[in-house]
Amino acid sequence: MNDISRLSRRGLLAGAAATALTAVTARAAHSSPARTNPVWAEPFQTADGFAGTNTLGQNGTTGGVGGPVVTVRDTETFLDYCDRNEPYVIQVDGIMTFSSKQGLRSNKTVIGLPGAEIRGGGLDMYRRQNVIIRNLKFSGADDDAISVQQSSHHIWIDHCDFSGGQDGLIDIVRGADFITVSWNHFHDHSKTALLGHSDSNASQDAGKLRVTFHHNYFNGTAQRHPRVRFGEPIHVYNNYFRDNALYGVASTMNAGVLVEANYFENVPHPIYSGYDASGPGRVVQRNNIYVNSGAPETLGTVVEPRTYYAYTPDNPSTLPSTVPGGVGVGRI
């Protein structure tokens, strides 16, 4: 496609998106005061946890705020906007069906309107930064549902629903850094979240992979909540682990993981130090609740997340009600 044809195509797509945006705005006006953007474009406060830190030239994670707000209703248009270099807030309206991992560039917010879903494929961030993914359902991915890799940083994955993929639901690998995974529902799957590509990748991952997991519902998923190599600190707090057949959290290959104020229910191995062929990692547990669960394994000391950001954990006894009631799509 030549440059003129490409510009014409993008102009048509933008026009179609603008038309859809106007329709959504009109619908919102019936129940709320007039506004420039649809109601779903408003809740884009910056992330908390590691994605909220002012590091690597980023003032937190704000995604596509400041760029145009577009609404997409077909897969081709959706992937086109994901692949653009400019900032965008991309509102997803409907089911986007595709295969494999498709690229998502920097300075984007991808947020689902009611009923939005990515089916069959996933989103890949490769050397990207400042990305927000919210209120989306991911199902049946033929690879990873979300892949964050190759030194990507400041990524916020929030209020999504993940299930039924062929590989990992979220992989954070190869030097990725400063990421928050919050208020997501993980279910009907085995390998949930992997941090660290392999036991031989210390040169790229050691000192990176700083990730916060908070207020997620690991609901019947078998393992990797998360499984960690090399990174420090990884902060796992205020999550609800329920019926996880293999294990909850695994710290391996000298990673440093703080597991704090979580609720483990029917988890035979809530915390491992070392797993499979991977050597032990350091892991500290504090103020967790274990119901019909095994004893946690701990080892050594871990850098405190409070050296990076402030936080106040909820009382873990409240999590079996507050987390299922707040996670996933339609809750923001």
TrEMBL record:
<dbReference type="GO" id="GO:0030570">
    <property type="term" value="F:pectate lyase activity"/>
</dbReference>
<feature type="domain" description="Pectate lyase">
    <location>
        <begin position="65"/>
        <end position="270"/>
    </location>
</feature>
<protein>
    <submittedName>
        <fullName>Pectate lyase</fullName>
        <ecNumber>4.2.2.2</ecNumber>
    </submittedName>
</protein>
<keyword id="KW-0624">Polysaccharide degradation</keyword>
<dbReference type="InterPro" id="IPR002022">
    <property type="entry name" value="Pec_lyase"/>
</dbReference>
<dbReference type="GO" id="GO:0005576">
    <property type="term" value="C:extracellular region"/>
</dbReference>
<feature type="signal peptide">
    <location>
        <begin position="1"/>
        <end position="28"/>
    </location>
</feature>
<keyword id="KW-0732">Signal</keyword>
<dbReference type="InterPro" id="IPR006626">
    <property type="entry name" value="PbH1"/>
</dbReference>
<dbReference type="InterPro" id="IPR012334">
    <property type="entry name" value="Pectin_lyas_fold"/>
</dbReference>
<dbReference type="Pfam" id="PF00544">
    <property type="entry name" value="Pectate_lyase_4"/>
</dbReference>
<dbReference type="InterPro" id="IPR045032">
    <property type="entry name" value="PEL"/>
</dbReference>
<dbReference type="InterPro" id="IPR011050">
    <property type="entry name" value="Pectin_lyase_fold/virulence"/>
</dbReference>
<dbReference type="GO" id="GO:0000272">
    <property type="term" value="P:polysaccharide catabolic process"/>
</dbReference>
<dbReference type="InterPro" id="IPR006311">
    <property type="entry name" value="TAT_signal"/>
</dbReference>
<keyword id="KW-0456">Lyase</keyword>
<keyword id="KW-0964">Secreted</keyword>
<keyword id="KW-0119">Carbohydrate metabolism</keyword>
<comment type="similarity">
    <text>Belongs to the polysaccharide lyase 1 family.</text>
</comment>
